[in-house]
């Protein structure tokens, strides 16, 4: 029983579109059969041809697509939204209202108000909405979450999460034809957050996902380091979680030489864990009393949650595409009536937007510690 | 322009079948549309359903399949052979003779004589034959090969290659329902080589692939460590390459605790390189004079050969499935008239079988140093 | 030409006293010949016997020692101060006034006022004063400093320094006979800083040492996590350097499972460097364009500053004692008229105390961003 | 109660002499008070001055030294032998016959016959003889030995030991003034083994030390890679231990780019361990069933054998000098009547020489598998 999917966005020049396509189809649960891959008709057709989408299911815009697919017996059941941020809301809302499930690249929307509105639309639609916070799809991130939830570490006391990239160390957005850099530096397409919205939210989300705790307060230093850049490219945030645990969140796109280094450490009363995206198939546990442990993806001793999301025996590396595919597979489960509880939903989308907007505003106003939600300090 | 593929083998319980399926389809170049997945009709149908293969293209055996597909306008163009070793020859030969390209899991055949015969059949067929020595598909293995070929290290002097697993430390082949262990320990299905044929050939192949040199002589210690096991489970081989370079090849399936640790070090006159499957997206270069270098997959500074086989920016891990997919993609190129020069071919298959047979025989006879080919010492 | 040294503190039960002794004597430049190792006469004598100090040069207190040694032709030339913090000022001041050079464990004094007074005393004494910020003695830390100073990274933009320990995750200070924990948790002996004064200053110092930049402003979250502990055991500080670079400093003694993990990353316009105390003999450089580099201690390609402070060829690990010994050797050079410019001096001591006092106060008052020196925000 | 030591060899230009001096004195148990540091009187005096040896205890040769020191009430009790290999026998024999304990750098002697003769002299002398196989002094190597001895891994099945250096990739021995390279490449000073005698024996010794097993048979490929070099610079040896376990020993000084990479892996029935000199303060255990473990030096959970030989809390790296010092400290214990059982003795010296001579001869004669002792195959 495979599911039929349409994609909006993701045409030639996109980094994330092809990843969504490979991830969606990897397990044979979902097939891409329709789409609006580009506003440029030639590019639209080019993407369709490369991906085996029939020409009659390539559409000029998402409204046309939703209308046409609804009319087909073999119409799509879900839409994958991989446009720049500013279109996320419109496409997602239209699809949901058109009776389709939506799986969207993050962030959910351009801003917090849109996210809250989208939450209402999701609730009214009766359809599933999923957000591809990719890193939550890694088996060892899920193992980490289980370990914390089981209480192996005791109460969480300290969280350090760092997501450092260096590729925006120069003003690439001013170069012609750098699509990746240019839309990210454009507030109209990205929203109020630059680095914080692009990768800071990933760090924020994984910290909450693994600890099962919620950030309540924060003190943010959101900065623009490269002169002339309209949005932030470096942010450092002190965190306070709902159980009193302290945290530090570091995200940067001007850490020259850094590739895509997301590292999370969680310390409890009895021990700590560390996961790093540079070496995603291991999880390190350090204990107050006793040897450190290194857990390897694919091992029989892992939790069911982790074992469910590897495809290969231990020692056979799986990576980013497979992590992404895990989210798609979970989403397929959810659509087909399973739990799918681990797919980030619109509530996570709202939290992510709140984090971005509040941090940017608080840092701009030199406001010190602020709450994530509401105005109380 | 996608290619249509059939698979033989790979049904429920197979490890490598699903990997071939995911790898073949990952890039949208090849689609699985027909197959003989199992001799058990129920399992055959089950695999087909899971992978979207139409019921009318699921066949009871490969002869029926080849005949039927030849008669279709949309018949398959290539066959993926993922059965146990003893069927590799028959299926491959039949497919080639039926005018189909063949991509086969390793080893090419059950023994050297079959491999040599298959080489003749390939030559006569005018069709492409590829062998999935997976590790040659990793971007950093290809970078390593380029570095040696460019002469950056100077002449190769020493090669150390180790492929250690521990999963056969106990006699799993005597457990009911351990399909992975049982066929590997059965000479009728595996051939004369156990560990050496299963993973030793990978080590042998990657050493030759990266260095561009050929093993000429060897001195082998091929052993059965777990009592009662019919085939070897540990082998250690001293090597001499055609340029006089020395080497050591270690392969084991009784190195308890080892997962799937394939590591290759190549030392030349000016420096050395090391690649390890545990951390496949980096390649380390150590120099006689100067800092060590760590090259990261996906980086712009890599050779075209390495850059061509990543799908993601640096810092986004790719793994085993992607490496496998690179071999399929190259094979698709080869079929469509491109170079595809890096797909291991039947000549490599013959060498691999010669390595296994000669090493096993020489070790059994306590023969000391022997040549890989022929009888001269 | 070896120098004669006395030690104050460091008797049985001390961790750092024996380290100072080994470090001072390692290179044959300095010999321990006198001391006040403990207020307990038996322990005092025991330490002396273990270290080959003649009984007539073991003194009941530092005043007696300074007086007696001044009267000897072979009297000591320098004093090593390894007492708990609250005695640092008295011993250091008395020794300097007695015409002796002083090398002191950090922090320089119990509080900022004392540090400033000690600075005056040093200036008036004409003697050398050195502070053992151990980590500045590591060869690869010195190499890092040279790399930044040479401009290889371009202007520094971002600094992340983390010093995490877990050994105070439980209230060890309430256990009998835990000398290491008890004095550290006692404000009378430690000063106003717990974790921040014990290890936070190391992180602060190494960040300034390597970057050559000065912290101007900070926003601190200094916390007591273990209930009932009188001093802080966890601190997280946002930093702003004098060139506008941003930084994050994390120090903790309740990061359960962490051993002694000091890691520094410095990012400039062109690349970044990372040094970690867990693997002290390497320095990693990551570049915006080009392969990463790993520099190994003891290599001929390193700067003279780094090469001067290894004793062994590359590949032979040196550690904490050797790093400590480098500071002693530099101090011997300084005494004997050489440059010794890299020995942290009383000015560093004053900065460290200012960092601790200002961070503790600002965090307590929820003051947000504060300057390190003076009151201006 | 410290011990008084003389040194023979180790003057200016020596690498290992200063290491022995630092190691011997590190713990305050042994003091260097006499010596013959060089045949060159000026260098002899220079070393003495640097190390605080009184001029009247610097001697022109070891015979004069032994005679004179025997006549002093405060004469030395032990002699450290750090000359090139060809003098080890003479100096050791003379010292033992002169009633002094001997601690010698490896190898014990120039050849096997001398080693056997020295064993008789040791036995007749009633004095202690120790051999500084440095790597046995590392805490985590001792922990590894305990783990195997306790049976945690089950019976040992496989051993892989590799000691790779690259510094002799060029014919440095032909350069003027390269004392380190020139004596090593001179059979008159080194004996029949080049690389195998210099570092191969370390690999051999650590394999036997950790496993507690004895090599019975071997098949060696001992080679000279750099043209014109009189001794071997690369060797690869297949091993068979007395319990049937298989092994591979790799030693090289032409592995360009390698620094001093000694790595040992031991696999038993239930798991394996790996220790690497590049990261000496950890020991990794991999298990057939269960997470990997990483043990850290200085931890409270380690065996008494490992805890006894660290000086610092966990997380504070110790290195080569400290490992060396552990052997000296054990030797001091042995002299003073303690067990000191872990100091390698002359029996290990004899085994090491047998390994070198038999391997070199067997490889030269293309003899295949040979026994380590005697002639039986």
UniProtKB/TrEMBL annotation, chains A, B, C, D:
Coiled coil: none annotated. One of its GO terms (molecular function) is nucleotide binding. Transmembrane segments: none annotated. InterPro entries: Gfo/Idh/MocA-like_OxRdtase_N, Gfo/Idh/MocA_oxidoreduct, GFO_IDH_MocA-like_dom, NAD(P)-bd_dom_sf. Residues 141-273 form the GFO/IDH/MocA-like oxidoreductase domain. Residues 4-131 form the Gfo/Idh/MocA-like oxidoreductase N-terminal domain. It comes from the Bacteria. This is Oxidoreductase domain protein.
């Amino acid at each position: 029983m495979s599911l039929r999917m349409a994609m909006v966005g993701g045409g030639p020049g996109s980094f994330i579109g092809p990843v969504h396509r490979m991830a969606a189809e990897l397990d044979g649960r979902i097939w891409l059969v329709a789409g609006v891959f580009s506003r440029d008709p030639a590019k639209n057709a080019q993407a369709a041809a490369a991906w085996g989408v029939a020409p009659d299911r390539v559409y000029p815009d998402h409204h046309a697509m939703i209308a046409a697919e609804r009319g087909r017996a073999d119409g799509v059941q879900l839409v994958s939204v991989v446009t720049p941020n500013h279109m996320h809301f419109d496409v997602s809302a239209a699809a949901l209202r058109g009776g389709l499930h939506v799986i969207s690249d993050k962030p959910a929307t351009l801003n917090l108000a849109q996210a809250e509105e989208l939450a209402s639309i999701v609730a009214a639609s009766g359809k599933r909405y999923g957000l591809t916070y990719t890193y939550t799809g890694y088996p060892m991130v899920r193992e980490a979450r289980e370990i914390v939830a089981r209480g192996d570490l005791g109460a969480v006391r300290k969280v350090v999460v760092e997501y450092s990239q260096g590729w925006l160390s120069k003003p690439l957005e001013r170069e012609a034809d750098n699509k990746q850099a240019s839309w990210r530096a454009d507030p109209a397409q990205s929203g109020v957050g630059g680095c914080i919205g692009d990768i800071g939210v990933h760090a924020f989300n994984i910290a909450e996902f693994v600890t099962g705790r919620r950030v309540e307060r924060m003190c943010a230093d959101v900065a623009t380091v490269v002169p002339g850049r309209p949005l932030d490219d470096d942010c450092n945030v002190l965190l306070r979680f709902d159980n009193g645990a302290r945290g530090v969140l570091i995200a940067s796109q001007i850490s020259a030489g850094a590739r895509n280094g997301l590292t999370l450490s969680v310390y409890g009363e009895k021990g700590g864990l560390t996961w790093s995206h540079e070496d995603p198939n291991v999880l390190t546990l350090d204990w107050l009393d006793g040897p450190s442990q290194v857990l390897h993806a694919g091992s029989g001793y892992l939790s069911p949650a982790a074992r469910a999301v590897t495809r290969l025996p231990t020692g056979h590396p799986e990576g980013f595409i497979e992590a992404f595919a895990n989210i798609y597979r979970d989403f397929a489960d959810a659509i087909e009536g399973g739990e799918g509880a681990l797919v980030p939903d619109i509530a996570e989308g709202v939290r992510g937007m709140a984090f971005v907007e509040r941090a940017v505003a608080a840092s701009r106003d030199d406001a010190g510690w602020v709450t994530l939600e509401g105005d109380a300090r």
